[in-house]
Write a structure and sequence with these properties.
Largest sheet of chain A: 8 strands, mixed
Oligomer: heterodimer
Number of helices of chain B: 4
Structural class of chain B: mainly beta
Radius of gyration of chain B: 28 Å
Number of strands of chain B: 30
Mean pLDDT of chain A: 88
Distance between the termini of chain B: 23 Å
Distance between the termini of chain A: 54 Å
Strand content of chain B: 35-45%
Helix content of chain B: under 10%
Number of strands of chain A: 24
Shape of chain B: elongated
Low-confidence stretches of chain B: 1-6, 299-311
CATH architecture of the largest domain in chain B: 3-Layer(bba) Sandwich
Number of helices of chain A: 18
Structural class of chain A: alpha/beta
CATH topology of the largest domain in chain B: Glucose Oxidase, domain 1
Number of domains of chain B: 3
Largest interface: A-B, 59 and 52 residues
Number of domains of chain A: 3
Shape of chain A: globular
Chain lengths: ~600, ~375
């Protein structure tokens, strides 16, 4: 969808209704370009006693009015279009309030149609609560119990390639029918079910589900083994999200009337902006949004967009689950001092039960950032395992492939080809020093060779995502100028050596004529200043066995962009990256790296 | 701007509450508007559809799926006993026959001519909803349940496990900073809701379960004890379905935490009274905290005055509790609410407040790290 005359749009108001906070931004055309003017926020009002999302939206907009000194509301209505400097030309919104879009997906084979269905749902911005497949090892009654327990907002049923199995699809439809699932919101309406499987089984599925669910049939999302066709299923998910889920959420009917553009699930909007950057810049990016309850990872590799959501990895509501999943030693390995297990466990649980508290002491900040590294790492692991090529596809091999036996279904994520890593979410966007955000992302994602790093300044990617669907120019301009904070570029040679051994020599020539040389030993980190507006040509000479992008031991030349941190050289090794096993040595190295990069105030004194 | 909205838990001697008692599926309501109900009374009941079993008739009888229907000896919809034959096939001129027997008592719900499967539904599972609190039915929700109103003392905890229960309150410590000691458990604790001071540990909880204690309300617990008691590491704070035979509420947080004096003295004044408690906790959007409710029975809790919930913000003089290190658990009063952002040791710039602790010491804290103590 697009607005009829984009040039006539001068003022844009965009809101994002999160589970706890509703954020509003005001964008205006100044001269030839669109810029962010102000941002306001207010608590979301989906829950009792208000139970009307528009209350929170109005409060956030009032804050925008105050900060911008501009009238936007007439009573409880947004003035649109803009007249005599009052009101806005376009109002748009995203939403993840009330827990976002929660789905279950069904497929015949777990690693084939079920996995494709999972990708379709995730790409549409859903949280996938469970994946049910004919071969998932659970007994029918266990599956039925699970369907009843979870009460999803929507179900995506796939299965079979066109002309393939109908019996298994019928079996899944029968399970679903027997479970007779109820929708999460609104007792009075039927649960939406999208069927996107074998077209020969449509009649069978209709007979079994039509009377019990709000069944919608669309094109098969895996028509042949070699190809996915996720678009039609994703469009149907968005339609039903608006028609059923949003329409039953408190106050959304009203909100939907305020905006000419469909309300988008927040993660779908963030995904859209990442896709747009990839396409416009011709780069392969990874985006991550670490929230209180979930962590979303987005990537575009080989032209394929993937999104995953780790529903229980986050920094407040889900912080304790990070500990449960990764284990205490993995968190402790990032903490540059010693702390007892009992104490650390209690601290993490106390954050879980009082999620809005913030670290007051430096020690607490370091612990929280250590946990963030593990949450990001686990979410990225999950992303890599789902962002894969299609499984079950027969591969043609030539004689040249004899020594490179790659299986079908390998991950598409290749860190060597990663151009840009963008972070978002409180712990990254609000880190007291930007270098802390850079180091958290480097430690969690372990980028290889040359990678640009950036963070979302105030978490406005969702609003820009939905804006990009109707006014790409405005979205792109604000994204580049006001949303992204460039941290700098990370150079991480792949390989390992003995501590203190030769690793890389770097020569830097900035576009303004500045020059710098550095030699970094294995096990060291170093930063060279390179300002935000600067670009530079770097020539990296790796030692034998190290690869910076042109092959082992080969000199690599690249054009890099600066940032608030600068050019970070990370010679701690890749494939594998390992921290010292001995406690004292580990703490010594963490302090050394933090000091080299000026990560914490104490490191400054030390330096 | 001397105003800040900060979440807090409620501890009040006298208030009025309404609790919705709703069935998971439509059923029949057993109480009428105006009825006086006790916590243990059933106010609504229904039957959940029974579990489902699938039986692949085609495989068992070696038939094609489309032939399965003709092999049925009992029609779809029949009520069957466990072991009863409902499908049969004959082969070799009728000399050999194979049979399909029902694996459970239940109803033959459907048979598929595509998969060759039969679906057997077990008998419905009865579900009853209790009143949970002593009070008056103020609203009937036809076929769904009722709303029960109660005049009560009300204490919210910060975290709990286990579902709803009720029993007599029994004090097991003398002071709010005294941990619960398993040696103090005896036969008189059976069916009681025990009140402790600063901490409970896993050995106390295990012994309490064995002795038939229904609930424990205490200041704190070490996470490692909770993990040992539950048998797993709690990932997300969504609780209430634990089946440990006991409900536990912590009022302050994890670790050894002296129970807030106000909470402790209110609970002490209610000793011997019948209370309802629920450990159900959901910390996400739409937060649910665990609770203890003691319905008034003509007596008013000592020291308590009538208060109702207020959503007013924090002001100078408001009572607060610190909810994060380094002063975790300490109580005090708001001494100042400076409007400007202040830099913390972490270098983050945040809204702060000045607190005067009970001993007169004054410190500056982030506003996000305190909670108001209402009432």
């Amino acid at each position: 969808m697009s607005v009829s005359n984009p040039d006539s749009i001068h003022t844009i108001l965009a809101t994002d209704c999160g589970s706890t906070t509703t954020k509003a931004i005001l964008i205006e055309k100044r001269g030839d370009e669109y810029r962010l003017i102000v941002r306001g926020e207010a608590p979301t009002t989906v829950e009792a006693p208000f139970e009307d999302v528009t209350r929170g939206v109005l409060n956030a907009v009032r804050e925008v009015e105050e900060l911008a000194g501009k009238k936007i509301l007439e009573g409880e209505k947004i003035i649109t279009p803009c007249k005599n400097g009052e009101g806005v030309d376009l109002y748009i919104s995203t939403s993840s309030a009330g827990g976002g879009l929660q789905m279950m997906v069904f497929g015949v084979v777990k690693t084939m149609t079920a996995e494709s269905a999972q990708r379709a749902a995730l790409g549409a911005g859903a949280i996938v609560m469970d994946v049910i497949a004919s071969n998932d090892g659970r007994l029918p009654h266990q599956k039925i119990k699970r369907i009843r327990q979870l009460r999803p907002d929507m179900i995506l049923l796939s299965g079979g390639i066109d002309g393939g199995t109908t019996a298994h699809v019928a079996e899944l439809a029968e399970l679903l029918s027997a479970a007779d699932p109820k929708a999460r919101l609104g007792a009075g309406y039927m649960l939406p079910v999208i069927y996107a499987g074998n077209k020969d089984a449509r009649q069978i599925v209709s007979e079994r589900l039509e009377k019990k669910t709000a069944l919608v049939i669309t094109d098969n999302l895996r028509p042949v083994l070699e190809r996915e066709n996720l678009g039609p299923a994703r469009i149907r998910i968005h339609d039903l999200f608006m028609e059923h889920v949003m329409a039953h959420a408190p106050g959304y009917k009203k909100l939907m009337q305020w905006t000419p553009v469909p309300i988008m699930p927040t993660p779908a909007a963030v995904g859209k902006i990442i896709e747009t950057i990839a396409r416009d810049e011709g780069i392969q990016p990874i985006g991550v949004d670490i929230g209180g309850a979930t962590t979303d990872v987005f990537s575009v590799f080989q032209g394929v967009f993937n999104r995953t959501v780790s529903a229980n990895l986050g920094m407040s509501y889900s912080i304790s689950n990070v500990l449960a999943e990764t284990g205490l030693p993995n968190i402790m390995r990032w903490v540059p001092f010693q702390v007892g297990e009992k104490d650390l466990r209690n601290r993490i649980k106390n954050k879980m039960i009082r999620p809005t508290t913030i670290p007051q002491s430096l020690e607490e900040l370091m612990i929280e950032q250590a946990i963030a590294r593990e949450a990001l790492r686990l979410a990225f692991e999950q992303h890599k395992s789902l962002a894969v090529g299609l499984k079950g596809v027969q591969q043609e091999r030539t004689i040249s492939d004899t020594f490179e036996q790659t299986a079908s279904g390998e991950t598409l994520v290749n860190l060597r080809d990663l151009d840009m890593l963008v972070g978002s979410g409180g712990v990254l966007s609000h880190a007291p020093r930007r270098v802390q955000a850079a180091l958290m992302m480097i430690d969690a994602f372990l980028p290889e060779c040359v990678t640009h790093l950036a963070v979302d300044s105030i978490f406005m990617m969702p609003q820009l995502g939905v804006l990009s669907s109707v006014h790409e120019k405005a979205a792109t301009e604000v994204f580049r100028k006001d949303c992204l904070i460039h941290l700098g570029t990370c150079i991480a040679p792949v390989g390992i050596a003995k501590e203190g051994g030769e690793c890389i020599k770097v020569r830097l020539e900035t576009d303004k004529g500045g020059k710098a040389d550095a030699s970094v030993k294995f096990g060291q980190m170093m930063v060279l200043p390179l300002a935000v507006e600067e670009t530079a040509r770097v020539v990296v000479e790796p030692s034998r066995g190290f690869d910076v992008g042109s092959g082992p031991g080969k000199t690599h030349e690249a054009k890099v962009q600066g940032g608030v941190v600068g050019l970070i050289m990370d010679c701690r090794g890749r494939q594998p990256f390992a921290l010292p096993a001995a406690e004292d040595e580990r703490v010594r190295k963490l302090i050394e790296w933090n000091t080299a990069l000026n990560v914490y105030p104490t490191d400054e004194k030390r330096k | 701007m001397a105003h800040a909205y900060t979440p807090g838990v409620t501890v009040t001697a006298e208030t009025r509450l309404i609790r919705e008692r709703r069935l998971p599926l439509a059923g029949s309501v057993q109480a009428k508007k105006g009825d006086m109900v006790k916590a243990e009374d059933v106010v609504a009941r229904t039957e959940l559809p029974g579990n489902v079993q699938t039986i692949n008739i085609a495989n068992i009888l070696s038939l094609l799926p489309e032939d399965v229907e003709s092999a049925l000896v009992k029609p779809v919809g029949s009520v069957l006993k466990k072991g009863e034959v409902f499908a049969m096939s004959r082969s070799f001129f009728g000399l050999f026959k194979s049979t399909c027997k029902s694996p459970v008592d239940g109803t033959l719900e459907s048979v598929s001519n595509i998969t060759g499967q039969a679906i057997m539904r077990e008998p419905p599972i009865p579900v009853e909803v209790h009143a949970y609190v002593d009070g008056v039915v103020v609203e009937e929700m036809p076929r769904e349940g009722v709303k029960v109103e109660t005049e009560c003392s009300f204490i919210q905890g910060i975290f709990g496990i286990g579902g709803e229960t009720w029993g007599e309150l029994k004090l097991l410590v003398k002071r709010s900073d005294e941990p619960l000691d398993e040696k103090s458990l005896d036969a008189s604790c059976k069916d009681k809701l025990l009140i402790g001071g600063s901490k409970v540990d896993v050995s106390f909880l295990n012994k309490a379960v064995a002795m038939g204690v229904r609930g424990v309300v205490v200041g704190g617990i070490d996470d490692k004890d909770l993990r040992e008691f539950l048998g797993y590491d709690l990932g997300v704070a969504i609780t209430g379905s634990e089946e440990k035979g006991i409900s536990v509420i912590i009022t302050e947080g994890f670790g050894e935490m002296r129970m807030a004096e106000k909470t402790f003295s209110l609970l002490r004044s209610l000793e011997g009274r019948k209370a309802s408690m629920s450990g159900v906790t959901q910390i996400r959007a739409g937060v649910m905290r665990p609770e203890v409710i003691v319905a008034q029975d003509g007596r008013t809790a000592r020291g308590g005055e009538k208060t109702f919930f207020s959503s007013s913000g924090m002001e100078i003089g408001s009572s607060i509790r610190v909810i994060r290190e380094p002063y975790f658990g300490r109580l005090g009063k708001v001494a100042a609410l400076p409007p400007e952002l202040r830099q913390l040791e972490t270098e983050a710039k945040v809204r702060v407040l000045e607190v005067e602790f009970e001993n007169g010491e004054r410190v500056v804290l982030p506003r996000a790290n305190v909670e108001m103590i209402e009432g």
